[in-house]
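Example record

One chain of 251 residues, shown exactly as stored in the release files.
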Amino acid sequence: MTLQDALLAAWLIFSRVGGCVMLAPGLGSARLPVKARLLVALALSLSLVPLLAGAVVEDMREVAREVKLLLVVNEVMIGITFGLITRCFLLGAQFAATFAANAIGLAGIPGLPVDDSEATVPIATLVSLSSTMFILSLGLHGEMLLAIAQSYDAFPVRVFPDPAWLLQSLTDAVAETTVLGLRLAAPFAAYAITVNLAMGFAGKFTPQLQVYFVSTGVVVLGGLWVFILVFPDWLRLFVSAYESWLVHGQF
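Predicted structure tokens for this chain:
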């Protein structure tokens, strides 16, 4: 293995790892400085170089010299696809939290853009930060790194994956994480239906009473009580689904 081959192999590994880290939950947060994210991606890439450099160099020898630079684009595309799928899980949890906030009457409260660049409701921020904390504290970022290393078995450097297949993988990820978000938000859908039916009947029987304004505080208090009850299960379901995809490749 020449020095030129080793440097090109390290650059290709960095391209795939960096594309994933750029979008991965926690590591790719907009709150982290760009230099910090770059150093994290570089450190993770260097940790994989001793394990993967030999296989990457062997794959490069089977590729024509004039298309070797295209390998960088190929690796970045694979890494970004991997990172987008991991990001879909976090977006699914945020979708469920936003739905819950609308169901219990907290949608109008402005929040702070903690994890993302755009502000969202406080419950969504809490869920996003808690999910990210669990991912990092349970070592799932290490599982992500292991999954990237194992991805070279399915996507060797010499193979250019079909863009249609990558797009289909992203579509499946969006569909499955949306279903996950609906599962998480199901208790609040039931709560919203029950509360609105109760308020409708109360308003019908007592038309002289402004039921909506009187019951707003009770609805919010009951919704927060439901949120406290289901929040541990939320985190458990989210972590279980995320780990299942990282370890087994299944949603």
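Notes: Helices lie at 3-21, 34-60, 70-104, 122-137, 140-154, 163-205, 211-248.
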